[in-house]
Amino acid sequence: MSGHSKWKTIKHKKEKEDARRGKVFTKVGREIITAAKHGGADLEANPRLRMAVQKAKDVNMPNDNIQRLIQKASGGGEDVHLEDVVYEAYGPEGVGMLIEVLTDNKNRTLPIIRNILEKHSGRMADKGAVSYLFDKKGLILFSPEADEIKVIDIAIENGAEDVKKEEDNSIMVISQIDCFERLREAFEKNKIKFESAELSMIPKTQVELDEDNAKKIFKLIDLLEEEDDVQKVHANFDVPSDIIDKLSEEK
Hints:
The chain has 251 residues and is of the alpha+beta class.
């Protein structure tokens, strides 16, 4: 991982998310409605809804909005069926991509995704061709300013699978899915600030990209995530920190 930084990659992405807050609210709202419809409005009994509500809070969605969405879903509301779909694809330089979608019409969504990929050095992949490259894990990311000793102690005490420190001193805490919420709550209780906390598809191997291909993959992911139906894009690429810094300055 010499010279590379997951923290800088996520920070670069979050800055763009902040600029399109309305779309972020739309995506989070869809997830809350779907989670509540599938598992009920009880947060304690519905882990998917707990995660969706936490994500909404992370992006500063007002509590009144969150409650209205849950009530809308649990009270019937509009009879819109949103389906979870994961499309597999390849990006520039053979980067593997998993595209998580919530859609009410796959026949509309799939051609849009295929068109974006084909216009930006990507292509659809067969089912199973990319997914084996990833493991679903909990991922909590800390900036270089975080207290390393405290982070490691809390991670170990609460069942983390791995703690990784990068050369810029940012820290990744990786966990199995079943102890992710406990870990997150432990860091919050101890007032240890983290940059992001989510269930994520962690790549087993990564494709290192140069500046030109880094621009292409960031552009491709941005365009995919601009679509309302696309919830999240995972990709197994790695970009040196200096390139991320340069791209952030250029935006």
